[in-house]
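Worked Example 4.2. Consider the chain below.
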Amino acid sequence: MKTGTRASYLWLLLFLSVFVWSGVAPKDNFTWFLEVLPAIIALCAIVLTRKEFPLTPLSYLLILIHSIILMVGGHYTYAEVPLFDDLAELMGSSRNNYDKLGHFAQGFIPAIIAREIIIRQAVILSKRWMNFFIICFCLGFSAFYELIEWWVALASGEDAHAFLGTQGDIWDTQSDMMLALIGSIAAIVSLSRWHDHQLSSIDRKR
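Applying the procedure from the previous section yields the following C-alpha cells:
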C-alpha cells in the first residue's frame, strides 16, 4: 500500500471516529447538526476533488483539524466544552472561549486552502496582492458565517441559542471576525514556506 493511500485511510479513520463520537448523545441535536454540517461538506468536497485536484498534505491536515474542532463544538456546544471550562476557571473567567478557537481556525485554515487554489490556478501572480486577497477572503467568509448564524437564529428562535454561543457578550460577533482575521494573517506568516515546499512537490509529480 502506498504511503499516500495509507495517509488517506488514516485521515478518513480519524474523521469518521470523531464524527461518530460527536454524534453520540450530543448536548443539543440541532446544534450538533449545524456545527458538523461544514465538516460533512468539506469531506464531500475532498472526495469529489481527490483525483482531479488533490491538495497538499498540509491542506488535508488542516481540514481534518478544523473538522475536529467543529465536531467537538457540535458535541458539547461551543459554550460548554469541558477543557475550556477548566481553562476559564484557571484564568478567573466565566466565559468558555472554545468558540474563539473555532473562529481563529475559521481564518487560519481557509487561508491556506485559498492560497493553494490561487497559486495552483494562477489566479493572482503577485504575492502581495495574493496575501491581501486571502486575508480579505477569510474576513469576508467569517462575516458571511456570522450572517448565517443570524439567519438561523431568526428562523429557529430559541433553538439557535447554543449555535450562536454569544454567552452574553455584546461584542461577540466583532471579536469572532477579528480572530478570523488574525488567524488568516498568522497562517500566511507561519505556514507559507512549508506550503510552498509541498506545492513544489506537487508540481514535480505532474
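Helices lie at 3-23, 29-49, 57-76, 82-90, 98-120, 127-156, 161-164, 172-205. The mean pLDDT is 88. Compare this with Example 4.1 before moving on.
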